[in-house]
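Bug #77: duplicate submission created two jobs. Keeping one. Sequence:
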Amino acid sequence: MKKQKKIGLYFGTFNPIHIGHLIIANHMVEFSDLDEVWFVITPHNPHKKKKNLLEDYHRMAMVELAIDNYDKLQASNIEFGLPQPNYTVNTLAHLEEKYPSRDFCLIMGEDNLKSLHKWKNYEVILERYSIYVYPRISEGVVETQFNNHEKIIKVDAPIIELSSTFIRKGVKDNKNIRPMLSPEVWKYLDEMNFYR
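Kept job's structure:
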């Protein structure tokens, strides 16, 4: 029987996608047992203000530009068609239905693992899916129930202290943030005059 492809789902608004996202995604696909990583572009995070969020299709276009030369990375707009605000547990169910031959896993930073117990139906997620966690410097502690959990796989990825918020502010303040973005994404942002 053919082995199911193991897909790591990397959720985010990617507003904009930067080299930190690429480093993490590429590390996950090269140094763990994941076959592919899909960037799942979130239309609107229920926990974030929407005012400085670029249109969904612009963020999708930038993700596609950023990963164009990476065979094992893909962009997914699966959440664009789902009711808002959307929750990860619903997206996972939807993806399983659409791609029954794939084995889906979650990718998250350690900062998100610390708040996983507040997620909608987090027990269902943990029961059915593996979670690949990369290190992040953040406040707080991981709940004891998640320590040494069989479904939580810690991946020794590089710690990237770079955020989309920092990049947006840099653009607004007229700083040169080009090294933080792939050249294609920088060109797109610049030509569209985003975040200024």
